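Question (not urgent): is this output format expected?
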Amino acid sequence: MSPSAETASGDDVEVPNNKSRVTVVGSGNWGSVAAKLIASNTLKLSSFHDEVRMWVFEEVLPSGEKLSEVINQTNENVKYLPGIKLGRNVVAVPDLEHAVRDANMLVFVAPHQLMEGLCRRLVGKIRADAEAISLIKGMEVKMEGPCMISTLITEQLGINCCVLMGANIANEIAVEKFSEATVGYRENKEIAEKWVRLFSTPYFMVSACQDVEGVELCGTLKNVVAIAAGFVDGLEMGNNTKARQSAAIMRMGLREMKAFSQLLFSSVKDSTFFESCGVADLITTCLGGRNRKCADAFARNGGKKSFDELEAEILQGQKLQGVLTAKEVYEVLRHRGWLELFPLFRTVHEICIGRLPPTAIVEYSQS
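Got this back:
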């Protein structure tokens, strides 16, 4: 008998065994864009069930309406991706257990600091044959050392987890500007290619790379470098000087990203840093995106406004990952005695917490 699934109206429908069902766990800016991408493809690919569920952390909007209900009524995430239609086959579901019911392809795209709690809630609630992919930038730092989000998902839920990272900015993908990404996989190339088909569109080019940790660390660490680039942008310098400083920051940042990744995981390949998830994503994120934007404002204010304040003012509910990741990286470096080996990563964190002024980023890059 085919498994049954619950629609937004609460009715059970029969899901053919040979069709994959997709659930997106997360509904912020990037989660909504991911749902849009996937939904356009599930309608075209016969191997996927048309409906794409999107788990929504329920919020009450200023109008008094519930966010999930407004998404289902308007086909638009009016808070995190206003003005963009997600696709009529996207269904917002505020109940996490119902959202993942019968799904055998789980797309995780929630703030990384929430993932441990989300995984605990999902234990025993998902299909044994489910496959996962993480679009999440960040890591968990535990007593025993750093834990990548893909590893956290695999260990807590007992399922294989790929990653997707790349040279893209969510709002640009939403309006179908050209972008690209890399799927990192461990051993199963067939499932990697299935994820590639699910995400690929004429404006979003996706390829696969057998290096989960390398791809994931590129996506994680580039946000720290983007904070540094934002500091440079926010300082009062001439355009030529600023351009040279930014180029230096990106070059040094890539060097530290590669060294840090390969110290943590000897399996990380040099070639991964030349994929979309590597140098292309680094340049894209340093030239645009929320981390650069908030760091720019931080430097312009001379560090007088905290990143928490700037996040609330500028991002309007979206989360800033770079500052938290810089702290997590710093903890790893301090614990392992590597601080002197990674002066850029160290300097970024010390500026973020007010130990150094924003101008220290220029002093570092000239040293």
